Amino acid sequence: MAPTATAPARAAADPRRRALARKRRLAVAFVLPALLLLGALVVYPVFFSFGRSLFDASGDRFVGAGNYTAILQDPATLKAIRNSTIWVVVAPTLLTGLGLVLAVLTEKVRWATAFKLVLFLPMAVSFLAAGIIFRLAYEQNPDRGVLNAVAVGIHDTFADTAAYPTARAREGLGLAGAPGGPYSTERSVRPGGSVGLGLVGVGPDALPAAAQPASAPADTPGGADAITGTVYLDFAPGGAGTPGTVDPGEKGLPGMKVEAVRDGEVAATATAAADGTFRLAGLAPGDYTVRLPAANFAAPYQGVDWLGPALITPAVIGAYLWVWTGFAMVLIGAGLAAIPRDALEAARMDGASEGQIFRKITVPLLAPVLTVVFVTLVINVMKVFDLVYIIAPGPVQEEANVLATRMWLVSFGGGNDQGLGSALSIVLLLLVVPAMVFNIRRFRRSGA
Fold first, then answer.
1. Contact 384, 87 (CB under 8 A)
2. Buried (b) or exposed (e) across 356-367, using 16+ Cβ within 10 A?
3. Which of 5, 52, 247, 280 could bridge to 268 as Cys pair (CB 3.0-4.6 Å)?
4. Are 251 and 236 in contact (CB under 8 A)?
5. What is the sign, positive or negative, of the torsion defined by CA atoms of 385, 391, 396, 400?
6. Could you tell me whether strands 194-200 and 168-169 are parallel, antiparallel, or unpaired per DSSP bridges?
7. Which has the closest alpha carbon to 286: 214, 406, 192, 170?
8. pLDDT in tens, 289-335
9. 275 neighbors 230 (Cβ within 8 angstroms)
10. Angle at 284 between CA 279 and CA 286, to 5 degrees
11. Rounded to the nearest 5 degrees, what angle is found at the Cα of 298, between the Cα atoms of 257 and 222?
12. DSSP collapsed to 3 states, the chain
C-alpha cells in the first residue's frame, strides 16, 4: 500500500497550489481581452465569411460550393488570380534581391545610415499616398507625368521630332494626301520647274523662331537638273491674300523635308530654308512628283503608356518596390551585421574576390534571413489592395485586379455578390495561411 502524504506535506503544498492557481487566473485575465478582440476581429469573420460563401448573392439560397466553382469560371476572377501569381513571383523576388544588393553596398558607403534612412522613408508613407504619387508620376501627358517627361526628354535628345505635326494641305490647291501625310503634288514637275507647297493648320506660336517671310517659288535659283520651290504657311495675318499663292506676310516653314519621287523611288531630298525655299538637285530629265513625307507631320512622342492594359501590373509593382525596398534592405542589413567577419576576412586572405565572397559566403550565411524576408513579402503581396485600386484607372482596372481588389469589387464595388466575395476571401486566406505557418516555424526554430 502506497504511503499517504503527511499533514505537514499537504499544508506546504496548498500555498504552492494557491499561488499557481492565482498566477493562472492572472494570466487569463491579461490574455482574455486579447482573445476576445482576436475572436471578434479574426475568428468570427473567418467563420462568418465561410458560411456566407455557401449562399447566393442575396444570402437566401444555399448554393454549397457553387461560388467556389464560379471562381474558376469567371474570366475576370481568373485574370485576378493570374495577376496575383505574377505579384507573388515577381515582387518578393525583386525586393529580396534589391534589399540584398543594397544592404551589401551600404556597408561600403560612408553615409550608410543616411542612405538607409532615405530608402526606408517610403515605409512611412501610406499606400494611399504612394498610390496618388505614382498615379501622377505615371500620367501619359509629359507635362504632368514625371516619368514620361523624362522619357520624352531622352527621346527628343536622340531622335528628330516632327517639324509640323498639325500642318495639313488645303484641298484642291495642288497637294493631295490624307491627314498626317504624306502629301504629294497632283501634277508632275520636270527639272527646271518650280512648285509652291502651301500648308495650313500651323498656329503662329508653333512656327520656329527662325521662320522668315516666304519667297515666291520662281525666285529660287534652280537649274536644268533641279526642281525648286517653297513650303510655306498659306495664311496671311488677318486672313488676307489668295489661297495657293505666296502672299505678303506669309511665312516659310523651315526644316520641312521635301522629296522628289519618280516611279516610286526617291530621287532627291532637300530641307526647306528659313524662308521655306528648297532645291531638289541632281535630277535626270523626266516627270517627278514632289512629296512632303509623313515624318513632317507625325505626332510628337508622348512617352510610355504606363497606365495602359499592357503595363499597368508592372507599373503598380514598381510603386510597391519603391515602398518596400527599404524594409527588405534594413532586415537583410541586420542579418548581414551578424555574419562573422572572420569568415569574410579569411576568404579575402585566401585570395577570393568580392564577387566570390558574395556568392559563396555572404549569400549562404544570409539564407535564413533571406527566406524570412521573402516569405514575409509573399504574405504581404497576396493582400495588396490599395496600390492596385488607386493607381489603375477605371478602364484598365480589370487588367490590374488581384484577388484582394477583385474580392472588394465583387462584394462592395458594384457587384453586390457577397457570396462570391466571401468565397474569394476564403481562397485568399487559404493561400496566405501556409506562408504564415512557414514563417512562424522558422521564427520558432531561430528562437530555439
1. yes
2. ebbeebbeebbe
3. 280
4. no
5. negative
6. antiparallel
7. 192
8. 889 888 888 877 888 889 999 999 999 999 999 999 999 998 898 88
9. yes
10. 100
11. 10
12. CCCCCCHHHHHHHHHHHHHHHHHHHHHHHHHHHHHHHHHHHHHHHHHHHHHHCCECCCCCCECCCHHHHHHCCCHHHHHHHHHHHHHHHHHHHHHHHHHHHHHHHHCCCCCHHHHHHHHHHHHHCCHHHHHHHHHHHCCCCCCCCHHHHHHHHHHHHHCCCCCCCCCEECCCCCEECCCCCCEEECCCECCCCEEEEEEECCCHHHCCCCCCECCCHHHCCCCCCCEEEEEEECCCHHHCCCCCCCCCCCEECCCCEEEEEECCEEEEEEECCCCCEEEECCCCCCCEEEEECHHHHCCCCCCCCCCCCCCHHHHHHHHHHHHHHHHHHHHHHHHHHCCCHHHHHHHHHCCCCHHHHHHHHHHHHHHHHHHHHHHHHHHHHHCCCHHHHHHCCHHHHHHHCCHHHHHHHHHCCCCCCHHHHHHHHHHHHHHHHHHHHHHHHHHHHHHC
| 230-258 residue pLDDT tens | 888 888 776 666 787 888 888 888 888 99
Residues sharing a CB contact under 8 Å with residue 446, sequence separation 6 or more, in sequence order: 368
Name the band, by pLDDT with cuts 50, 70 and 90, for residue 447.
Answer: low
- Beta strands 257-262 and 265-271: pairing type? antiparallel
pTM over 0.85: no
Region of 291 please: left (phi>0), alpha (psi -120 to 50) or beta. beta
